[in-house]
Amino acid sequence: MSRDRTRTREPGDEATQSDGFEASEFDVGADVASDASAPSETGTETGASAGLRERLATRTEKLFSPRAFLAILLLSVAGLFTAGTFLPLPGSGLLGVFLATFAFGLVASDRRYGEAAVAGGITVGASAFLDAAVVAFLGGFGVPLALLGGGVGAAVAVVGTYFGRDLRAGLTKEI
Fold this sequence. Notes:
Layout: H1 23-26, H2 28-37, H3 47-63, H4 66-86, H5 92-107, H6 113-131, H7 133-138, H8 142-172
Helix pairs in contact: 2-3, 4-5, 4-6, 5-6, 5-8, 6-8
């Protein structure tokens, strides 16, 4: 006895071939031809190039999601501000960024290390630049200090996201 899945014919089913499968299930050419002949939203491109643009946008979204970046950036700024407010110690903003990205990594299902690195770098770099604004304009070493802060912030954000994802994986894994 065969383990193949077969479909039975329905009396009104004209799209079914003699082997029991629908013609549209395996007919790749029909889908491509209908997509290529359909005009896109702008009316100047074919459906194939619009489909290529959508696939490219989907792949780009997988690499760098603006929505995830904005969420991590807002969390990082909030973490930096909160930690700096309640812990008036040098470097407490880094702890806030770490905890914010840790929380994001804990709840996020996708890997978003790039977004975390950029958001943490921008947050800590801007904070370092604004903290030393007077020195930056008068002393001239504020920009390298901001770049150094941005690099450290990016590293802290990636490590925080990694540990949050690691904890999430450990909590959701079956024993």
